[in-house]
Each structure stands twice: as structure tokens, then as C-alpha cells.
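user: can you give me the structure for this one chain? C-alpha cells are fine.
assistant: on it. calling the predictor now.
[tool input]
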Amino acid sequence: MKKVILGAAVVLALTLTSCGAMMAGALFTDVTTAYAAVPTEQTLGTREGRAQATSILGLIATGDAGINAAARAGGITRITHIDRRNRSILGIISWHETIVHGN
């Protein structure tokens, strides 16, 4: 009985670790998802700006992955939509990137 309860607890813990969070793989993650769109714009924009932050072991995190930083990097003044890209290797090192599209 203890083995069944322990097994159920492990399965539950593994399945709930990503609830409400981004899609993540246990070994490797490289996922781009939509973040926001401005519904009044009819075009997707011709420019792209990127900003990134990095985390090591969840203990050290550096960088500016903000929307303003990405817009500045792409010379964008009118944002049409924003994507987020998350990458991770074994949960040891992970990157969070904001991709801003606009004109």
C-alpha cells in the first residue's frame, strides 16, 4: 500500500509541476507561444525585436526579457504582437525570450 501511495504522489507531483506554467519538457524545452496581440492592427509588422533573460539552476537569473527592451532592440514604436520563447536543458539552464513584432 505504501508503494502505491508513494507512486501516486510522485506521478501527481510530476504532472502538476507545469500546471499554469508554460509547456515544458523534462529533458529539453524549446517552445514559442503567443503572448499578446493588438486587435486594432491589420498587419503583423515588418520589424522584430528580441530580449532575453537566463537562469542557472533556478538560483541565478540575469537579463532583461521585458517588452520595452525587445521593442528598443528592434527599433519598434508600434507593437502588433508579442511572442514568448522558452528554452531549457535538463532544468539546469533556461532562457526566457520576449519577441516583439511591429513597425
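assistant: here you go. The CA atoms of residues 48 and 102 lie 7 Å apart. Helices lie at 2-16, 67-74.
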